[in-house]
Amino acid sequence: MIQKKLFSSKKFWDRYFWDLHDEFAYEILEDNPIRFHLTENDTLLLDPGEDLAYISLAYQYKAENELEIAWDDEAHFHPFVLRFTEFQAIVDKIAAVHNVEKWVPALLLRRFVGIESFAELQTISAWELEMRKTSGLFTEDELHDWFEKSKQDHENFWSDCDRKWNYQEPTGWGFEGNDAYSLRNANNSHFPFQQWNRMLAELGC
Question: Containing H/E element for 92?
Fold first, then answer.
């Protein structure tokens, strides 16, 4: 279930992006992942926990046990599992299926997009800026400061960055390299490549 009331709170997003560090607990999110139904058989489960410290993304096919495919924390993160075009298609599908505004899944899932260059980062940041504007939760000054900070924080990193989307059979697209921090790579036999790729095909990716 998507908690629309929760997502209308700017304080929630400040906490979700780890811009605000305070004492809180969202009991509604404790042991209660947000379920995104994408096709008849495929579901993504976003589990931020009650304190948003460990944000997990899992995949479920039919009624099988869900499998964690990405996670983000401030220590040993492995969040990158989506190509940008896949991310956009998934956001559109969630908005349509769950009758929510597009910016909600866009901001919830943005951290799971694997970016392979500074040029791509700029493109995605511009797109995210539009989503943040559409939400109506951020002032013009906050949007400007966020956009400038997103460029400054990453500009030096990309000169020596080693990560790239690579396509190979039979697994399809994988995020490879020393800085990839991704479970979606050809060497990970536990990633559900066959089911995942079929789902993406159904979504038109």
Answer: helix 84-98
Residue with tokens 């139904």: 37
Kindly tell me the sign of the dihedral angle through the C-alpha atoms of 76, 115, 42, 190.
Answer: negative
* pLDDT per position as a tens digit, 49-100: 999 999 999 999 998 889 999 999 989 999 999 999 999 999 999 999 999 9
Whether the CA torsion 139, 17, 156, 168 is positive or negative: it is: negative
Amino acid identity of 193? Answer: F
Where are the strands (E) in the chain, listed by range?
34-37, 42-47, 55-61, 67-72, 164-168, 172-176
Residue numbers in the chain where pLDDT is lower than 50: none
Amino acid sitting at position 68: E
d(CA 121, CA 154): 9
Please give the pLDDT value at position 151: 76
Do the beta carbons of residue 46 and residue 38 sit within 8 Å? Answer: no
DSSP letter string, 99-155: T--THHHHHHHGGGB---SHHHHHHHHHHHHHHHHHHT-S-HHHHHHHHHHHHHHHH
Tell me how far apart the alpha carbons of residues 58 and 89 are, in angstroms, rounded to a whole number: 18
In this prediction, residue 107 carries a pLDDT of 97
